[in-house]
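Apologies for my clumsy wording, but are you able to produce some protein sequence, whichever is easiest, and the tokens describing how it folds?
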Amino acid sequence: MLKAPKNLTPPVAPTKPHSFTHHGDTVSDPYFWLKDPGYPEVTDKAILGYLKAENDYYETVTKPDKPQTDALFEEIKGRMREDDEGVPYQHGLYDFRWAFTPGKQYRTWYYRPRTDDPFIGDKWDVLFDENTAANGLEYFKLGIIAISPDGRFMATSADTNGSERYTITVKDLQTGEMLPDTLTEVSGELVWAHDSQTFFYVKVSKEWRPYQVRAHILGTHASGADDPIIYEETSPSFFIHIHGTSSEDYLVIRAADHVTAENHILDLKNPNLIQKNTGLVQKNASSVPIFDSKNLICASPRRENHDYSVDHAGNGFVIRSNKNHMNYGVFFAKNVLEESWLEQLSGDETRYIRGVEAFDTFAAVEDRIDGLDQITLLSPDGSACQIPMNEAVYEIGLANNTEASQSFIRLGFSSLLTPPTVLDVPVSLGSGKVSSGEAIVRKIQKIPSGYDRSNYRSERLMVTARDGALVPVSLVYRADWNKKSSAPMHLYGYGAYGLGMSPSFSAPRLSLLNRGFIYAIAHVRGGDELGKGWYESGKLAARTNSFNDFVDVAKSLVGQGYAADGGISISGGSAGGKLMGAVLNQAPDLFNGAVLHVPFVDVLNTMLDADLPLTPLEWPEWGNPIEDAGAYQTIKGYCPYTNMEAKAYPPMLVTGGLNDPRVTYWEPAKWTAKARALKTDDNLLMMKINMGAGHGGKSGRFERYYEVAEEYMFLLNCSKVGSDD
């Protein structure tokens, strides 16, 4: 085991008496004080002092390894094409592309007047340089670049501190001038109306809940303070998202939690509705005009557990809905109202429909059959064809399809052995039947330092869990790896929100494989790898299935000779960080090291705090412990922070972000503080809090990969593996 340096004293967080009582049960939480009552502003000197002390300890402990970490980073960086560029695409009046300049952290976006072929010609103008926008900032993330339909205006949104609170600005592409219009505290989403003067966006609340859709008319109310409210969501458990349909004729306002959705439709071709209504209606308490909601069409009023989404193109509306089966179906309709929906593709026990996108003459469906990703082309009359796949284990999905009239679909493909690949697949419709042509490879991610897939192998196993469920496991390793060789293994997992972990390629991962590691992904319940039922069997009262699956996979991999006893390191982030915390409490002796990225480990406290923006939204996923005594006991029974005990834990690396609105900084901080106080071992425990970033860590591509190198250095130390020659 990796031991803590004996000559260094780690930080010790003080304890302060605090307890809470629910359903007759009292819980003590002496590290509750690490939550700043002024959050999202964190100003408490004691809290900031503790976080700084942990960061200083991390820097001191890792300093001797810095030369090796730097070498790892250079190795990983060597697999990155420094002048990487995206596949050109066309939208409206322009061709577009992006590219990296060698040495730069962020993309530069280019455009030019639309041509016959976006792949021919090299004369491009700079549209937006992220590097210029990020200059002097510790963090920068571009939300959207949205060009007005007449091609004159460019609206962009950006997050400059990791808090996921974006700012929208507008540039006149004709004059090159920035308009005074600057909208703050927004979600980053933006949709233009056909008049090229009006766009729609989403406001976030003080607590970071996306709750209002507003319309902004250029040249009026530059700050957006008096922009008319198009829709306001009053339920704290529903978040709002907006998008334009594929036809660009409609705005879709989607209010949803994790299980129930409601979609409202607004005609983008008639923005006069906005201007007329805002002058006629009463104003609310904040003196902001409210749009007359009769001009919004609700496709299907919310009803519990009905989840659906809406798109539109030439043949009408296309809807993905679980009204008839938990694994969803695809419906076509001339009228968006539910009574007119006609189901043309049905999910079943083996077919799980993950998404759908409308085109003028067909729909492209992302589905998963027997656990394997597929793309199905579907015509309005129900005829369908599948695009053939040539690998056994892979991921594939719809990529950047910008126009409903295009005669091809763009797909993204990857596998454990195949670098990310962009494909254009021709689509034709003859006699009402849809068919696909031979795929055109537009891009394969290049590995400048070299990559030969024949040097690696992948497998997919089915492991029997303690209750008899068969859990998929994806494995990748060097071709010269052998069973029972006691080679180190790294096991990754997530298992929540119905977000399956795809068996995709990772160039940085080669640094582990080339040092003898076998890398495994445990597709535990709570994800959707085997359909919606797989998700349902890992949530609410069944949540512990996710944890048990992961432990059982680890034990099985040892038993089958894929890993040595005590030779597995593990990692997970966010809800996957909670998975890590739970399995460390359950079976700490199984693992030689653990990385908990932005870990959601203080589940009980968070689910009891209805003032946090994500909490009401999360109740359908975890349960509502405020009102439901059973949910309280379930969450308390597995909550990683609550159930930490005085026993030996393996070495741990914990990360977090001060500005993270999803997993707040105090969760990793409280876990680390309590672990230091309780654990009976002398194994290394480190925490690194990004003081200027959020949920995803640092934003620059080099900084991000340096953090990967730091993680790999920790894993190598845990596994006692030497450097790669």
